[in-house]
Design goal:
By secondary structure, this protein is mainly α. Helices cover about 80% and strands about 0% of the residues. The termini are far apart.
Length: about 140
Amino acid sequence: MVHLEWTAALEVGHPEIDADHRAMVSLLNRLHAASSRSDQAAVRIELATLEALTRDHFAREERLMLDIRYPFAARHQKEHVHLFDEIGAQIDDFNEGLLGAAAIAQFIRRWLMDHVETSDRQLCAALARCCQRQF
């Protein structure tokens, strides 16, 4: 995995969502660094942090969707459930020695990039329309 730099291209225009995504990018970079050093204790800490951040981020997005009665909320939430389940399964595989931290980080990175570009951009556009302003 290559270091992921936060750029304006990753911004969706909502301060809470962008802050969470920025934190995820930072966390993925820390996870990669810990994995590169073969620091299993740090990897476990970063994976636990990743799981907590992901859960909290999804809860924030789902609250925003509920607030505006977002018409695509069910589909978006289904993506969240799928990813959260997959992260949990991959962490279990890591703990059993079946999967490396770099593979988990690469999966999350790919998912984050895809999800930001599609689902989160749509949600933020709806939030901006609903609130009659850009965030």
